[in-house]
Amino acid sequence: MVTESPVIETAKRFTGWYILAAVLFILLGLFAIIEPARAVVGIAWLLGWLLILGGVAYLIATFRGGGAKRVFFQILSAIAFFIGGLYILTHPQLAIGTLTALLAVVIFAAGVFDIITYFRLQREHPSGWILLNGIVALVLGVLIWVQWPSSSTWAIGTLVGVNLLMTGITRLIFGMAGRRLIRHATA
């Protein structure tokens, strides 16, 4: 029986985990697209806990010293993170509404900048894709804003779901290509 090199074994193990992670991304993305209202609540909870953990990190950083002024601002940052995290955990619908309004503004602004970029680069390197992306972003930003706050139940969950789905598909393709390269290298 021929044993494989440790590098090949490690590459196979890595691509196996990579493919598994890709499938999990795809499943989470599909769930978020199918159930955007539930997904957005999960996102709000995650954000709340991340802020609380950030507060803990700032609090731990105060013990590193560095002068009274630095410690004071570390403690203020820790308090702000704690309060923000607790507020999101205790008022998730309000947090979701605020995040959705911010999302609409950011997407709209990105669309404006893409359209400006298209017209600025039109003579040098014209790309209709930049213009199309800008127009789609403008429309999406306006749709989210006009339907706000009712868009809060679907916008973030759906967009995160699409992102997770596309990330999973991309990673799956990459992992499968890695597996083909490994098979080709060992053949």
Explain what the structure shows.
With 187 residues, this protein is mainly α. It has one domain (6-186). Helices cover 85% and strands 0% of the residues. It is built from six helices and no strands. Helix 1 (6-34) packs across helix 2, helix 2 packs across helix 4 (92-121) and helix 3 packs across helix 4 (92-121). It starts with 5 loop residues before the first helix and ends with a helix.
Whole-number tally of structural domains? 1
How confident is the prediction overall: mean pLDDT? 85
- Spatial gap, N to C terminus: 15 Å
Low-pLDDT windows of residues: none
Shape: extended
**Number of distinct helices:** 6
Order of helices and strands: HHHHHH
The fraction of residues assigned to DSSP E strands is under 5%
What class would the helix/strand composition place it in? mainly alpha
What Rg, in angstroms, do the CA atoms define? 23 Å
Instruction: Kindly state the percentage of residues in helix.
Output: over 70%
Major sheet description: none
Count of individual beta strands: 0
Summarize the structure.
The protein has 187 residues and is mainly alpha-helical. Helix content is 85%, strand content 0%. It has one domain (6-186).
Question: What's the SSE blueprint?
Answer:
Elements: H1 6-34, H2 36-61, H3 68-90, H4 92-121, H5 128-146, H6 155-186
Label this structure with key terms.
187 residues; 6 helices; mainly alpha
